[in-house]
Design a protein that fits this description.
Blueprint (H helix, E strand, L loop, with lengths): L1 H24 L1 H9 L8 H8 L9 H13 L3 E11 L5 E12 L5 E4 L1 H4 L4 E5 L5 E10 L4 E5 L22 E6 L7 E15 L5 E8 L11 E3 L5 E8 L10 E5 H14 L5 E2 L2 E5 L2 H6 L8 E6 L4 H5 L6 E5 L2 E5 L3 E5 L2 E2 L3 H9 L6 E8 L2 E8 L1 E2 L7
Antiparallel strand pairs: 1-2, 1-4, 2-3, 3-6, 4-5, 5-6, 7-8, 7-10, 8-9, 9-12, 10-11, 11-12, 13-22, 14-15, 15-18, 16-17, 18-19, 18-20, 20-21
């Protein structure tokens, strides 16, 4: 009899526990079945939304800067679709569309972008911030600097991007990129200026100098878009990434805007870009070479040859007059040694080429040279490179 009573109690409590467990685990549904669904006004997150209007919103200074820059500049950024004609497997001509970015730089409708965005394009379509599609014409392009200018009718221009001064930027300052990565219109990413004076090989096989390196995320489709500072001024034109996967890995490159200004001005006014020409070949001095030549200076560019009739020859710069075999090289010595250009020290041909490229044909540069144990100053007026139309 006692065992029977114990079994009944055990059964009772077991059933009660199972019922309790069922109710506990299914209470949300039971509550809805018994009392119905709540009204919108009873939802806590809706109540909180109403209350947030009376609470002060905390926005960091960094957030404020990026938001203001985006609001200020993004209407000037455009999505560029370039249509080229290619041959398919059956040798049929088919259109192929590529995408990139650009930004409006002038009230007349001029847009700056990369050369590789519009190269070989038979048709260029610009998608504006209001999603209006406008046909654009190619004004000019320069493969050596990977820059191009296209144009839309001025009536479509509402905002232009302000161009800054890339000579004043410093490593560590804020960098903001706006573009159309993978066709996603007006995407903004942020980072810093990671390094300056980088060089990479362009898609055409040439070398792009003086590039800005940034860790702001840049992906396919960002090409031609602006790299901006905290004031919303363009400091560079996003042009390439270093990536093993094809996506951003925190190493992007932008063409300095000061360089782009010079190229764009020529493309707009003449339809072509003519690189400045000095007409000199030379060799950077080393300590050993300086000792062999018994020179009193250790740094500079030894002028090996001066092109007859070129800008340097016209200004009186002298090339070598005596052959010398040094290591496995044979070259002429006895010419002037270029020490500085416009006060900037020059140590090799790369530095000389870069400094000259920062100027235009017609600019007069002050060359400090070493000749026969004394310094001289020569004014050399740069000229257009012969046959120097870049396309």
């Amino acid at each position: 009899m006692l065992d029977h009573q114990v079994n009944k109690k055990f059964f009772f409590w077991t059933v009660l526990l199972l019922i309790g467990a069922f109710i506990y685990t299914n209470w949300d549904w039971i509550e809805i079945d018994l009392f119905g669904r709540p009204s919108v006004e009873d939802l806590d997150f809706i109540k909180a939304e109403g209350q947030s209007e009376i609470r002060p919103r905390i926005i960091s200074r960094d957030e404020q800067i990026t938001s203001e820059v985006f609001a200020k500049v993004h209407p000037a950024v455009v999505n560029i679709a370039a249509t080229t004609l290619t041959m398919n497997f059956w040798n049929q001509v088919v259109p192929q569309r590529g995408q990139g970015s650009g930004f409006i730089i002038d009230d007349d409708g001029y847009i700056l972008t990369n050369n590789h965005v519009v190269e070989s394009a038979q048709e260029i379509t610009v998608n504006l911030v209001n999603n209006k599609k406008v046909e654009a014409i190619l004004i000019g392009r320069d493969a050596s600097n990977d820059l191009a200018v296209i144009k839309i009718p001025a009536r479509y221009v509402t905002v232009i991007a302000k161009l800054g001064d890339s000579d004043t930027i410093r490593v560590g300052q804020k960098a903001i990129a706006i573009g159309n990565p993978f066709g996603l219109s007006h995407t903004m990413t942020t980072g810093i200026v990671s390094a300056l004076n980088r060089q990479i090989q362009s898609e055409e096989g040439g070398v792009l100098y003086d590039l800005i390196q940034t860790d702001a995320a840049i992906n396919p489709g960002n090409s031609g878009g602006p790299l901006l500072n905290s004031n919303g001024e363009v400091i560079g034109i996003n042009t390439a990434i270093f990536s093993r996967s094809g996506g951003s890995q925190g190493i992007g490159f932008a063409i300095p805007v000061n360089q782009a200004k010079r190229v764009a001005a020529q493309l707009i006014t003449s339809g072509r870009y003519s690189p400045p020409w000095l007409g000199v070949s030379g060799l950077g001095l080393t300590k050993d070479l300086s000792e062999v030549l018994k020179l009193d200076i250790k740094k500079g560019v030894l002028t090996v040859d001066v092109v007859r009739g070129g800008p340097a020859q016209k200004a009186g710069l002298r090339g070598g007059n005596t052959d010398l075999i040094y290591g496995n090289m044979r070259f002429s010595v006895g010419g002037d040694i270029i020490v500085s250009v416009n006060g900037k020290a020059i140590g090799d041909m790369k530095e000389l080429t870069q400094e000259v490229s920062r100027h235009n044909a017609g600019d007069a540069l002050d060359f400090k040279v070493w000749r026969k144990n004394r310094f001289l100053h020569l004014e050399i007026i740069l000229e257009e490179m012969p046959g120097g139309v870049n396309e």
